[in-house]
User: Fold this.
Amino acid sequence: MTSHIILPAPIAVNRPAAPGPVVVSVPHAGRIYPPEILSAARVDRCALERLEDRWCDRIAAGAHDAGAAVVTAFWARAVADCNRGEGQMAPGEVAPTLRAQFATPGRKERAGLGVVPTRLADCGPLWKQPIDRTALEWRLDRLHRPFHDALAGEIAAACARFGFAILVDLHSMPTIPPGQPGHGARIVIGDRFGATAAESLAALAVASASALGEPVLRNQPYAGGHIVRTHGRPGDGVHAIQIEIDRSLYLTAEGLPDAGRIGWLSRWFAEFIRKAGQWRPDAQFLPQAAE
Assistant:
């Protein structure tokens, strides 16, 4: 795929003047749609925008000043899903020549939510043609691989400075409907059931989110995706958590950012990043009594 239009870079890395051990990942809030993507789509842009964690990058706006390096995807999730692995696709969603390498799809891949999103409820297929090798490699090379390379670089830099690193992967979620696991939760902290972060860090995140006065769950229904699973290695000093925030907490009914609510969540997130920056792997977290 080629383009004559000059687009902003697919990702950005915003480093603080005084770096701490925290790296923030914002993989799904991108709002830039390259012309190649729009021309390949069989649905309109509004349908593709349903894939976005809409405007959640605004919540991370203060993380840089709080001492975190922030890695943000500017290109949309419709290009490639950085929270899926390169092998996460269903064979029925790709060209015949690619099917052998995607022989064991999971539930999300079968639903069309693989490393290239291919279907949405009420939309049907998103693309005019099955994803072929050229399209797949272009999407991975332009967005997915640079994003993970940037994350790995910032994590390695933090480990070199401090001997450990903390990765906070920020997402937003639709309101969890009645009857679904986790219904009622407005914020979900995921650590892959203890596999990607020390218990004290996950407890710190849960306590910090609970202070907002909103219902918080841990690992239900979102335990953490490819980003925390890949980069979170507590045994090697890399502790990773995923944070999901209900979009109704900061978007209007029309899906637009509510400035007051976004400011509220941004201040909370920056304060959590400051607290996380003071955390150490040997810390024992003890919740404080209400003041």
